[in-house]
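Bump. Still looking for Zinc finger protein structure tokens.
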Amino acid sequence: MSSRRDHIVLMISIFIMFSMVKGQPQVPCYFIFGDSIVDNGNNNNLITTAKANYFPYGIDFPNGPQNGRFTNGRNKADFIAELIGFNSSIPPHATARCNEILRGVNYGSGVAGIRDETGIRWGDRISMNRQLLNHQDTILRINSILRNITATRSLLNKCLYTVDMGNNDYLNNYLDSRFYLSSRMYTPDRFATILVQQFEGQLRRLHSYGARKVAVSNIGLLGCLPEETRTYGRNASGCVDFINNYVQLFNQKLKVSIDNLNTNLPNARFIISNQTSISTGGPPIGFTVFDSPCCIISNTTAKGQCSNNGQTPCSNRNQYVFFDNFHPTEAANRAIATRSYTALLPTDSYPTDIKGLVQT
Ligand SMILES: *[C@@H]1O[C@H](CO)[C@@H](O)[C@H](O)[C@H]1NC(C)=O
Ligand SMILES: *[C@@H]1O[C@H](CO)[C@@H](O)[C@H](O)[C@H]1NC(C)=O
Ligand SMILES: *[C@@H]1O[C@H](CO)[C@@H](O)[C@H](O)[C@H]1NC(C)=O
Ligand SMILES: *[C@@H]1O[C@H](CO)[C@@H](O)[C@H](O)[C@H]1NC(C)=O
Ligand SMILES: *[C@@H]1O[C@H](CO)[C@@H](O)[C@H](O)[C@H]1NC(C)=O
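Sorry for the wait, here they are.
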């Protein structure tokens, strides 16, 4: 008897698992704002050296290297889309067509920042302010499909939004004092304050466009990137301490800002995906190379990216955290997305994780 009952329970749980995999996504739409961590081709046709539509980028991607992701395979946004139940990736804004936009758009752009001038050294890029303008345009297009402002608004309220911004305001602005004035104008603390103020204004705009479920990534340990340890040398921590200290100022202020938004904006649910916690704590999961890149780094094109002269990258890509001097491998992107979706440690997300955001 008991074994028969167990059998039925097992069948029911298999049925539930199956319907979760095959069923509708947990939210009807997913909009992605950010930099090269999520860019899936928006920079391909911009005049910039910050693009990744050449070999060995995309070596493990189904359609090969022309997709424009800054990694060997899928990026963080691709894995988050999969975890919330979408059966394919969210299309880039540059090429999204017709009804595709009803399930979301990816606005991500390599070297983009919170500040408009961030990344200009490398050429064109779609800053957070421009990504918000693009989103306004998407909303008009959605409304012309649905022909009902109430329905458009209701759809936008239900979507998931993720924002990965701020990395380049340090890497390709404050820390690049030969090209940007910011480090001469502001102390690290002052810069973090104005950056968070600008970011908070942008997140308020996103809320005013109907966003309610918003997962914001804070800035990770930039001082541990291979490009930074190569440039500045390592402290006892193995990383460049002063850079991690600058970023921590931003992260502390961002948390206060997120609390403000949740308190003051109607029905707002902003969360922080804590990149520091996600990249450090927790059990080992198969990586063996943490501090050097898988591909051969270019000496001529964009700083810290893979060389474009056809050299083969490392073959054991699942063991590397970094594909080039800045960007995680597909294996690392999968790990980061998985812990952003379901927190492993209590510090991984605040006040809840993406799963908590989309399922309630
Ligand atoms: C993906 O899902 C959408 C609706 O959720 C459906 O219309 C489409 O046919 C699916 N595509 C595949 C390849 O299963
Ligand atoms: C517009 O959409 C709302 C919400 O989906 C619905 O209740 C309403 O009937 C729609 N109005 C028209 C004119 O279709
Ligand atoms: C880190 O290294 C730099 C350069 O070697 C040095 O100036 C600095 O004092 C070190 N910081 C710490 C906290 O050890
Ligand atoms: C993020 O994680 C770090 C390291 O685990 C922790 O010190 C910090 O308090 C966390 N921040 C938030 C907002 O949870
Ligand atoms: C770039 O320069 C470094 C040091 O000068 C050298 O070791 C490396 O092989 C060069 N990379 C390429 C792709 O030429």
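Residues 296, 299, 307 surround 2-acetamido-2-deoxy-beta-D-glucopyranose (ligand 5) (CB under 6 Å).

Edit: fixed formatting.
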